[in-house]
Amino acid sequence: MPFITPLISAQQYMEFGLGPSLVKTKDRNLSPLVNRGIGVSGHFAYEKRDRRIKQLQLDIGYSTLNNRTSSPGKIEVFSFDLAYTMLFPLHLPSGKAELFVGGTFDVFGNARTHLHYENNELSYEFGSSLAVSGQLDYPVWANDRRLLLSYRLSLPFVSYLIRPERNIPYPEKYLEDGTYNLEDTGLSGAALRSGRIVTFNKFQVVKSRMFLTYFFKKNPHALRLGYGWHFYATEHSGKATVAKHSLLCSILLNL
User: In this structure, what DSSP letter does residue 187 have?
Assistant: First the structure.
């Protein structure tokens, strides 16, 4: 009998998590320097588990970055990621661990603003993506306490990416007619239409998360401690790389 079936079969959880993050980025649209700093991350999710795992989650983050040179610079970073994941179980010969595979659809946004520049103070990536996802669950018992060690990996293979040109905090197609509207009218629609469909070779994204879930004995709720790593790189409209490490402490409320 698979471990996950008797333990958390047909259960629904709301997860609320918060923790520190470390962000490192190099975005040539803002600065040729590497900037790094600390921030805070929030994680909110609805998860239903029977034989499958279905999860709707929202990750948000804020951090301030600086470079390690004498050049003045402070960058504020705002991010969000709204994702829906569905995973299906695969049989493993060991009988202990359980493997799930499936996919994820997400809508994301990452915005960086340089507080000392005026000509190129804003850079961002917005869009959506489809990803191949998997999760491995392994039971851990400590002093007759039940825990579940999990690792999840998501690799987007196609994305719709919106990113501005250097020195122009507006989408490229906004200026196609050769005119510039100082009142920014029609900017929202132009921004949405300015994106391009890109595959993994043009927009490399890796999302991974390892977490340990502790289930209480006398009530149906749980605690979770997790570490996440989110990396992406693109050369679309200027090279940019972003890496984010985060620690999250969450409470899972059984519904």
Answer: H
**Nearest alpha carbon to residue 166 among 115, 205, 117:** 117
* Tokens encoding 67: 């470079």
Query: Cα 114 vs. chain centroid, distance in angstroms?
Result: 22
Architecture of domain 4-176+184-254 in this structure: Beta Barrel (2.40)
| pLDDT tens digits along 182-222 | 455 566 666 677 778 999 888 999 999 999 999 887 778 88
Report how far residue 37's alpha carbon sits from residue 65's, in angstroms, rounded to the nearest whole number: 4
- Identify each DSSP E strand in 28-68 by its residue range: 35-49, 53-65
pLDDT surpassing 70 at residue 72: no
Q: What are phi and psi of 63, to 5 degrees?
A: -155, 160
What is the number of other CB atoms lying within 10 angstroms of the CB of residue 91?
9
Share of the chain above pLDDT 90, in %: 46
pLDDT exceeds cutoff 90 at 150: yes
